[in-house]
Amino acid sequence: MTVIDQQLTSTTFRATTDQVALTAGLKNVLHAISSRPPVPVLAGVLMSASDTGLTLQGFDYEVSITEQVAGFGARSSVLVHARDLLDMVKDLGKGCPITFSQDGDKLLVEGDGVTYTLLTMPKDEYPSLLADADVNAAH
Questions:
Q1: Which residues contact 135 (CB under 8 A, 6 or more apart)?
Q2: Is 40 exposed, middle or buried (0-12, 13-18, 19+ CB in 10 A)?
Q3: What is the CA radius of gyration of the chain?
Q4: 81, exposed or middle or buried, with CB in 10 Å at 0-12, 13-18, 19+?
């Protein structure tokens, strides 16, 4: 289950989810992400929190995949390198809760007594079609 801190602003991302659910969602989204993307932000997964849960989006100009991880929360999003995130999540204990918290241009990934840090990518460089869909889905 995903739990999102509802007291945060839209510029700060904070979420907690289950390792198994997140791993499955990321693996599915990675099918839409090229191993050699023409634009660096296309190596990213857009993670969006809303009152309907955590949404993961991947895109490569030919295929777009969106996965929903059950839960609830306040609207916010962050873009991070998809394969790096999956490697970190798979390293954590199976079934452990994973907490995300954004600290400026870094995303802290915490679980099973371990903390990883990922640099965020600029969301404004992500394809606008997906960014618009994210905003509309959150309303």
A1: none
A2: exposed
A3: 13
A4: buried
Residue 12's pLDDT band (boundaries 50, 70, 90)?
confident
- Tell me the C-alpha distance between 43 and 114, whole Å: 24
**DSSP helix/strand/coil, 128:** helix
Backbone dihedral region for residue 123 (phi beyond 0: left; psi -120 to 50: alpha; all else: beta): alpha
Residue-wise pLDDT for 43-89, tens only, equals: 999 999 877 788 999 988 888 999 998 665 567 899 999 999 999 99
Which strands form 14-18's sheet, in the order they lie side by side?
A: 64-69, 53-59, 44-50, 76-81, 114-121, 106-111, 97-103, 14-18, 2-4, 71-72
Tell me the whole-structure pTM to 2 decimals: 0.82
